[in-house]
Specification:
Helices cover about 80% and strands about 0% of the residues. The termini are far apart.
């Protein structure tokens, strides 16, 4: 590589990034990736030669982020994980050079969580491609199959040695975000960041079948979100986030066999979603969320032996999805959801 000054390299790097961003916006992921990598090569020698983190390290971290996003979009999760780990190393180095930089520490927490998510995603894909429920709608789980799915994913993670790594990364991010929130207790964004880290950690603990640990995480996240929603009761986004924490809590309780507790959480989530959907008639996403709550409730009712209640919940969910299909016929995933619910109703009807 020809010798260039730091400023020259940064200017040329920005030109590479601008060109790559334009290609990415046009859908040319291959061309964008090539330019992002060229931009990375341009600055890497310069950054590696610096003993102290500099502007070059920050720019390199941003470039690795873009590379990982493009690789993820292309489905190359192994290479995306490599880019994310490179970004995480840079973010840790930057944050370590200035412990008072809250934004730098938040970047570490964010990237650590993303690495953990990709570790879980890779194993989940490998597991389901090896015989899992590839044909099932992504938004629904068949009654009785949730525990098997979680065990299969967890088994793949344990075999690859990645589940422990994912948990460690989630915990690293959570610890950073707890410290940042403690330093700025009135900062709503910081509090929300803690709730997201708790939710990610709880999900990873579910994979390990540490249901008590998962419930503790989901419960703390729920408490944070309830408090934030109470401070701004007209904020629909905050109330919807409460419903997602309730859904996670319900799933964990159901896996523990606490059907009454699970139903209470899931029904509260449903009530929130129905209220939000009624207040925003044009929001199909909220109606889809309500249908998901109804099918989860039906799943738990099946497990508890209440077939009549389960049928009623499935049928109510079917009505919601049918209305969505009628409203937007082109959405293939809603047709798939409708087919799945019909199959579940048929199974229960025949069993009766």
């Amino acid at each position: 590589m020809e010798a260039v000054t730091s400023n020259d390299a940064l200017v040329r790097h920005e030109a590479f990034l601008a060109g790559a961003d334009a290609l990415r916006a046009q859908g040319d992921l291959t061309g964008a990736l090539a330019r992002y990598r060229a931009a990375d090569d341009l600055l890497r020698a310069l950054a590696d030669g610096d003993g102290v983190p500099s502007r070059a390290h920050v720019v390199l971290a941003c470039t690795q982020q873009r590379i990982s996003e493009v690789l993820t979009a292309r489905g190359d999760l192994a290479a995306a994980l490599e880019a994310l780990r490179a970004e995480l190393a840079l973010r840790r180095r930057i944050a370590g050079a200035d412990t008072g930089d809250a934004q730098a520490r938040e970047h570490v927490a964010r990237v650590a969580a993303r690495v953990a998510e990709v570790l879980v995603l890779r194993s989940a894909i490998a597991t389901f491609q090896g015989g899992g429920e590839r044909g099932a709608p992504a938004t629904h789980r068949r009654p009785g199959e949730a525990s098997w799915n979680l065990s299969a994913v967890a088994g793949a993670l344990e075999t690859q040695g990645d589940l422990g790594g994912a948990l460690a990364l989630y915990r690293e991010g959570l610890a950073i975000r707890r410290r940042l929130a403690a330093q700025d207790p009135d900062n709503v964004a910081r509090a929300y960041d803690v709730s997201w880290s708790l939710t990610g950690l709880g999900g990873a603990l579910m994979l390990r079948r540490d249901l008590d640990g998962a419930l503790a995480c989901f419960g703390e996240a729920l408490a944070i979100r309830r408090a934030l929603a109470a401070r701004d009761p007209d904020n629909a986004r905050r109330r919807l986030d409460v419903s997602w924490s309730l859904m996670a809590t319900g799933d964990a309780l159901a896996d523990k066999g606490d059907h009454a507790g699970a139903l209470a959480a899931l029904r509260e989530a449903l009530a929130i979603r129905c209220t939000l959907a009624d207040a925003d008639p044009g929001n199909d996403g909220l109606r889809c969320d309500a249908a998901l709550s109804l099918t989860r409730i039906a799943d738990v009712l099946v497990a508890s032996g209440d077939r009549a209640g389960a049928l009623a919940a499935y049928r109510e969910g079917r009505m919601v999805v049918q209305a969505l299909v009628t409203r937007v016929p082109a959405r293939a995933e809603w047709h798939e959801d409708l087919t799945a619910i019909d199959a579940w109703i048929a199974e229960l009807t025949q069993a009766a």
